[in-house]
Write a structure and sequence with these properties.
three-stranded antiparallel beta sheet, 10 strands, binds S-adenosylmethionine
Length: about 280
């Protein structure tokens, strides 16, 4: 049996917050315990204290730290989650982009894309609105720190849970059944590029500039300093006038950032001030 004493979980939680900005305080300590338990069994460690000491002192500690964020982060996602924001892109952001920069595609980043359901849903919605990749209307890049999730995104093969918001007609239209799983049809997979990235890695910068960054349901897990660091990196990586879209339970309200809230279609999104 594995022992999880609250004091040891606190030590582990503090170490994880210090290194990765992820918060596991209060009730989230139990979540941390359940996520670490399989790995601790693999390592034959019988207590949270033993795992903490492994992370601090074991010769393999650097490798363990590499794999740790993927072990403890929440990868929950599904197709067509919070699609209201996609409509805002189609109704407001695309027309504006066409006026300002008609010669180049709209560049979008899904930051913290998990296994790809979010960027693929976006690509499908854009195609359905007549914004085709063939016409070079957009490019979507998508990143996540978890290599296993990025591999799944590239494979495009999903379980029932990923399709829980899809009715039978939607499933038939966008997916092909494969045993008891669902493969996204090829025509919805073009124009996307997936890559691994830890948004909080020291000195990390995104290589490109984007018109829109979606970062949904990631910031809620971060402590204040990590939250602000990620938002600062997004500000740097957006073109002047670019947009940042957060999840429903995330907001920049009461935070000192350069972003301005904009109400569009009844939702708040954030804008980096345009160049003067
Ligand atoms: C809850 S999922 C949200 C997925 C999708 N954005 C959505 O809203 O459905 C959060 C994702 O963020 C990723 N993530 C967490 N911290 C990250 C970081 N520092 N850098 C990159 N990805 C991160 C996790 O691996 C996870 O796949």
């Amino acid at each position: 049996m594995t022992a999880f004493q609250p004091a040891d979980l606190k030590l582990l939680g503090d170490l994880i917050q210090e290194r990765f900005g992820l918060m596991f305080d209060g009730v989230r300590q139990e979540i941390l315990a359940s996520r670490l338990q399989p790995r601790m069994r693999e390592l034959r460690l019988d207590s949270a204290r033993a795992y903490y000491e492994y992370l601090r002192f074991h010769p393999q500690r650097d490798a363990e730290f590499e794999r740790l964020p993927a072990l403890v982060t929440n990868n929950e996602t599904y197709f067509f989650r919070e699609t209201r924001q996609f409509e805002i892109l189609i109704d407001h952001v695309f027309p504006e982009h066409r006026r300002v920069a008609p010669a180049r595609p709209l560049r979008l980043l899904s930051a913290g894309c998990s296994s790809g359901e979010e960027p693929y849903s976006l690509a499908i919605t854009l195609q359905n609105a007549g914004l085709t990749q063939v016409g070079n209307a957009w490019e979507i890049e998508a990143c996540d720190l978890n290599p296993e999730r990025i591999a799944r995104a590239r494979e495009g093969l999903y379980d029932e849970t990923s399709l829980r918001a899809c009715d039978p007609e939607t499933r038939g239209r966008y997916f092909t059944a494969e045993d008891r799983r669902f493969r996204l049809k090829d025509r919805y997979r073009g124009g996307l590029r997936f890559f691994e990235a830890n948004l909080l890695a020291p000195h990390f910068t995104l290589a490109r500039r984007y018109d829109v960054i979606l970062c949904r349901n990631l910031l809620i897990y971060l402590c204040d300093s990590a939250f602000e660091s990620v938002i600062g990196r997004f500000a740097h990586s957006l073109v002047p006038g670019g947009y940042l879209l957060l999840g429903h339970s995330e907001s920049l309200f009461d935070r000192a950032t350069e972003f301005e809230p904009v109400v569009l279609g009844g939702s708040v999104i954030y804008r980096k001030p345009p160049a003067r």
